[in-house]
Amino acid sequence: MKSEKTDIYTNSETGCKPLLLIGVGNDSRADDGLGWSFLDRVKEKFPDGKMPLNPGAGPVPFDIEYRYQLQVEDAALISHYRKVVFIDATEEVHDEGFAIKECESSGTYHFSSHIQGPESILYLSEVLFGRSPETFIVSISGYEWELGIEMCERAAENLEKAFNTFLDRQLKPEHNVNQ
After folding, report:
1. What total of structural domains would you count in the chain?
2. Is the whole-model pTM more than 0.85?
3. DSSP sequence for 34-54
4. 150: how many CB neighbours lie within 10 A of its CB?
């Protein structure tokens, strides 16, 4: 019988890792790079790839993925995690400049690979792999979508608020991915 090596953070029953952050966007299109910039901030804040999610319990490793767009294959990827957070820019104007919400399975998927959303990816993970990780969406309001590497000032402010709120929520014991 083949023995699979797992780390102390991988759930021995499911084989699932604790946390995956997926940034969606394009940093060559101004504010469309908000998802990637969010991931860059996470890497700067936690260069060792671990977040202290529960005081006294030690840091928990996380993985990061950058995507131009979500693909059907991402359903296989997220099926290996207990908690997944999608981060993306949106044209929707949120009162706070961002929104963090639980992702609910769409119950369907799109035949075109260019319009898969987090809800479709979660649905495919459920149907194809029997896995439904706890999934959230961080959507950050953007305003400029033309070619350019600089995001506008308002989008940068929204990024800062979204990042700080995410950390505040993520680092609370009730959101611990080890549970």
Report:
1. 1
2. yes
3. HHHHHHHHHHHH-TTSEE--S
4. 12
The Cα–Cα gap between 160 and 137 comes to 16
Q: Specify whether the CB–CB gap between 166 and 138 falls below 8 A.
A: yes
* CA nearest neighbour of 36 among 66, 60, 59: 66
For residue 4, is it within any domain? no
d(CA 170, CA 149): 29
CATH number where 24 lies? 3.40.50.1450
Q: How sure is the predictor about 169, in pLDDT bands with cuts at 50, 70 and 90?
A: confident
Sign (positive or negative) of CA dihedral 125, 88, 170, 99 = negative
Give whole-number Cα distances, 32 to 47, 68, 179, in Å: 24, 10, 34
Segment 103-128, tens digit of pLDDT: 999 877 766 656 789 999 999 999 99
Let me know if residue 2 belongs to a domain: no
Residue with tokens 């649905």: 123
Instruction: Give per-residue pLDDT as tens, 83-98.
Output: 999 999 999 999 999 9
Tokens linked to 78: 């997220």
d(Cα 116, Cα 11) in Å, to the nearest integer? 28
